[in-house]
Protein backbone atom coordinates (compact mmCIF):
# COMPACT_ATOMS: atom_id res chain seq x y z
CA UNK A 1 0.00 0.00 0.00
CA UNK A 2 1.28 3.48 -0.84
CA UNK A 3 0.05 6.82 0.50
CA UNK A 4 1.78 10.20 0.43
CA UNK A 5 5.19 8.77 -0.60
CA UNK A 6 4.80 6.20 2.21
CA UNK A 7 4.83 2.48 1.52
CA UNK A 8 3.39 -0.06 3.95
CA UNK A 9 3.92 -3.80 3.74
CA UNK A 10 3.58 -6.75 6.06
CA UNK A 11 7.12 -7.60 7.16
CA UNK A 12 7.93 -11.26 6.62
CA UNK A 13 9.25 -13.33 9.50
CA UNK A 14 9.09 -12.98 13.25
CA UNK A 15 10.52 -9.98 15.09
CA UNK A 16 11.85 -9.67 18.62
CA UNK A 17 11.46 -6.35 20.43
CA UNK A 18 14.04 -5.75 23.20
CA UNK A 19 15.35 -2.97 25.41
CA UNK A 20 17.40 -2.66 28.60
CA UNK A 21 18.09 -6.41 28.67
CA UNK A 22 14.40 -7.38 28.51
CA UNK A 23 12.23 -8.87 25.78
CA UNK A 24 9.23 -6.57 25.31
CA UNK A 25 7.48 -8.75 22.79
CA UNK A 26 7.66 -10.93 19.72
CA UNK A 27 5.52 -10.57 16.62
CA UNK A 28 4.88 -12.11 13.22
CA UNK A 29 2.45 -9.26 12.44
CA UNK A 30 4.89 -6.36 12.02
CA UNK A 31 4.19 -3.63 9.46
CA UNK A 32 7.16 -2.08 7.67
CA UNK A 33 6.73 1.60 6.81
CA UNK A 34 9.09 3.24 4.34
CA UNK A 35 8.87 6.98 3.78
CA UNK A 36 10.85 8.24 0.79
CA UNK A 37 14.49 7.21 1.11
CA UNK A 38 14.41 6.90 4.91
CA UNK A 39 15.23 3.64 6.68
CA UNK A 40 12.23 1.37 7.31
CA UNK A 41 10.29 1.81 10.54
CA UNK A 42 8.66 -1.26 12.06
CA UNK A 43 5.20 -0.92 13.63
CA UNK A 44 4.38 -3.68 16.11
CA UNK A 45 0.82 -4.53 17.20
CA UNK A 46 0.20 -3.60 20.84
CA UNK A 47 -1.32 -7.05 21.35
CA UNK A 48 2.17 -8.55 20.77
CA UNK A 49 3.90 -6.27 23.31
CA UNK A 50 4.08 -6.19 27.11
CA UNK A 51 2.02 -2.98 27.20
CA UNK A 52 2.13 -2.94 31.01
CA UNK A 53 5.72 -1.70 30.58
CA UNK A 54 4.66 1.35 28.55
CA UNK A 55 3.13 4.55 29.91
CA UNK A 56 1.62 7.12 27.56
CA UNK A 57 3.25 10.52 27.99
CA UNK A 58 2.09 14.05 27.25
CA UNK A 59 4.51 14.24 24.31
CA UNK A 60 2.94 14.57 20.86
CA UNK A 61 4.15 15.46 17.40
CA UNK A 62 2.57 16.10 14.04
CA UNK A 63 3.58 14.61 10.70
CA UNK A 64 1.76 16.11 7.71
CA UNK A 65 1.77 12.69 6.01
CA UNK A 66 0.95 10.40 8.95
CA UNK A 67 -0.97 12.58 11.42
CA UNK A 68 -0.69 13.13 15.18
CA UNK A 69 1.69 10.86 17.11
CA UNK A 70 1.46 9.96 20.80
CA UNK A 71 4.54 8.84 22.74
CA UNK A 72 5.21 6.17 25.35
CA UNK A 73 7.87 5.85 28.04
CA UNK A 74 9.24 2.36 28.63
CA UNK A 75 9.40 1.48 32.33
CA UNK A 76 12.56 -0.67 32.32
CA UNK A 77 14.16 -2.28 35.40
CA UNK A 78 17.11 0.08 34.95
CA UNK A 79 14.76 3.07 34.93
CA UNK A 80 12.38 4.82 32.56
CA UNK A 81 13.31 5.26 28.91
CA UNK A 82 11.42 8.43 28.05
CA UNK A 83 9.45 8.52 24.80
CA UNK A 84 10.94 5.22 23.58
CA UNK A 85 7.93 4.52 21.36
CA UNK A 86 5.30 6.35 19.38
CA UNK A 87 1.93 5.55 17.88
CA UNK A 88 -0.49 7.08 15.43
CA UNK A 89 -3.81 6.45 17.16
CA UNK A 90 -5.81 7.76 14.20
CA UNK A 91 -3.40 7.99 11.26
CA UNK A 92 -4.22 9.90 8.10
CA UNK A 93 -6.23 8.30 5.30
CA UNK A 94 -4.45 5.44 3.59
CA UNK A 95 -2.36 4.59 6.68
CA UNK A 96 -5.07 3.14 8.92
CA UNK A 97 -3.14 -0.15 9.00
CA UNK A 98 -0.64 1.28 11.55
CA UNK A 99 -3.34 2.25 14.08
CA UNK A 100 -3.01 0.13 17.23
CA UNK A 101 0.73 -0.34 16.68
CA UNK A 102 3.87 1.06 18.33
CA UNK A 103 7.07 2.09 16.59
CA UNK A 104 10.37 2.55 18.42
CA UNK A 105 13.42 4.78 18.38
CA UNK A 106 16.32 2.56 17.25
CA UNK A 107 18.68 4.03 19.85
CA UNK A 108 16.28 3.05 22.66
CA UNK A 109 14.60 -0.22 21.54
CA UNK A 110 15.83 -2.98 19.22
CA UNK A 111 13.42 -4.48 16.71
CA UNK A 112 15.00 -7.30 14.72
CA UNK A 113 14.01 -10.36 12.78
CA UNK A 114 14.73 -13.64 14.59
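^ C-alpha coordinates above, recovered residues below v
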Amino acid sequence: MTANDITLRNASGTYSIRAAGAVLGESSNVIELVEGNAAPVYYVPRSDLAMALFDKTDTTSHCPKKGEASYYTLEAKSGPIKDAAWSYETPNAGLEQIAGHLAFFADKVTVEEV
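The radius of gyration is 13 Å.
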